[in-house]
Amino acid sequence: MNWSPDTTQVKSWNEWDTLRHVIVGKADDCHIPPEEPALDAKVPEDSDMRGQWGRRPQETIDRANELLDNFADMLRKRGVRVDRPTPTDFSLPATTPDFHTDSQFGCMPPRDVLLTVGHEILEATMSYRCRWFEYLCYRPLMQQYWEEDVNFRHEAAPKPRLTDADYHADYLSEKIGIEKRLKWTAEKFFVTTEEEPLFDAADVLRFGKDLIVQHGFTTNMKGIEWLRRHFPDHRVRAVNFPGDPYPIHIDATFTPLRPGLILNNPNRRLPDEQRAYFNKNDWEIVDAAQPAHNTPPPLCYSSTWLSMNVLVLDPKTVCVEASEVYQMEQMDKLGMEVIPVELRDAYAFGGGLHCCTADVYRDGDCEDYFP
Ligand code: ARG
After folding, report:
1. Considering 7, 162, 229, 232, which has the largest number of Cβ atoms within 10 A of its Cβ?
2. pLDDT digits (tens, 9 = 90+) for 236-281
3. Which of 301, 324, 344 to mutate to test the pocket of ligand 1 (most atoms within 8 A of CB)?
4. Does the CB atom of residue 355 touch ligand 1 within 6 A?
């Protein structure tokens, strides 16, 4: 059945086929969460966010929402159906029998929470305590899709316990230093332990039959094994990027644009032995252009490499952040039509154009790109 705006259908097998229906996050009530082992190791050591927490300043929330609303409107004008989450009260603590944290996070990057694979949307385990309940913001939509599409599979991965046993104590010291961090990530010694399966949805890239998953701070090997058992018809491949001292979420590191073409962050190169899999199957991996900025905006978790965090609308059309002139130029040279989208003032809320969305429907079927 082809897509029609009048019925709800959930289906998306990859990152590039024509996008018809998407969720765009919201910045409402977003908080900088208090310290917790999960998050602490991931806040850059020189970040202006260290040591402070609480609700983000209202004017920054309003500005981020303005940009997210404009992005949603632009997508709607192009015929894409756009849904939005329902924020909960993020000032409330998150408490389970196993942990307590004094506030939550927000619902800006849906990509971190929701993994769409074919007719299924899977709620990730998550790995930060402050994001444990974030799936609730998407439940009204999941319920609606479930009522309206008989083929929709709504799944949730086992909620993790997130006790201290989930985190390596070595990572919790105040100053580790970049050199040691790089050594540790090269050795695949990450903040999360192998206590129980952990993954964030944004560590997964969908290439039809192949799911490419970053092993790092937010996803452990058991999380990858859990995905392998959960999607028995897929090939689930672990990748890692030794050049990244804070390996969280794959989408500012490795960005497929269309069948056969991937951008790779030049500071976080995929190791040769992992590259071979792509090259053998005629996929070209090119270095992404440099970011246009030297520093991230204030109170931002991410690096300047959100420049390559793009949303592909179809194999010829891509949304790039409007200030990222070098990235836009590179896209143009690669034969893509570029839609500039202003989003930089929303980066602090959890990410860029790919992060702030989650697929509901793209054309196309499950293909094997690595036969
Ligand atoms: N780790 C990335 C960087 O700072 C940011 C990734 C953000 N992605 C996301 N889905 N929230 O370079």
Report:
1. 162
2. 999 999 999 999 999 999 999 999 999 999 999 999 999 999 999 9
3. 301
4. yes
Q: Name the domain count of the chain.
A: 1
Question: The CATH number of the domain where 249 resides is what?
Answer: 3.75.10.10
List the residue whose alpha carbon is closest to atom 5 of ligand 1. 302
Nearest CA-CA partner of 135 in 127, 144, 125, 145:
125
pLDDT, mean of residues 149-171: 96
Kindly state if the Cβ of 202 falls inside 6 Å of ligand 1. yes
Q: Does the CB atom of residue 302 touch ligand 1 within 6 A?
A: yes
Residue 11 lies in a domain: no
Could you give the ipTM of this predicted complex?
Answer: 0.97
For position 44, what pLDDT does the model report?
A: 76
Per-residue confidence (pLDDT) for residue 174, from 0 to 100: 66
Distance 298 CA to ligand 1 centre (A): 15
Q: Is residue 184 part of a domain?
A: yes
How far away, in angstroms, is 347 Cα from ligand 1 center?
Answer: 10
CB of 248 closer than 6 A to ligand 1?
yes
Strand order in the sheet with 120-123: 114-117, 120-123, 153-156
Residue 4 lies in a domain: no
Quick check: is 288 in a domain?
yes
* Residue 40 confidence (pLDDT): 72
Catalytic site positions: 200, 249, 355
pLDDT confidence band for 341 (50 / 70 / 90): very high
Distance from C-alpha of 354 to C-alpha of 72, rounded to nearest angstrom: 13
- Nearest residue by C-alpha to atom 7 in ligand 1: 351
Task: Compute the distance from residue 370 Cα to the ligand 1 centre, in Å.
Answer: 26
Q: Which residues contact 189 (CB under 8 A, 6 or more apart)?
A: 168, 170
From the CA of 258, how far away is ligand 1's center (Å)?
Answer: 21
DSSP letters for 70-129:
HHHHHHHHTT-EEE------TTS-EE-SS-EES----BS-GGGTEEEEBTEEEE---S-G
pLDDT mean across residues, the chain: 96
Q: Is the CB of 249 under 6 A from ligand 1?
A: yes
The ligand 1 atom at the shortest distance from the C-alpha of residue 200 is 10
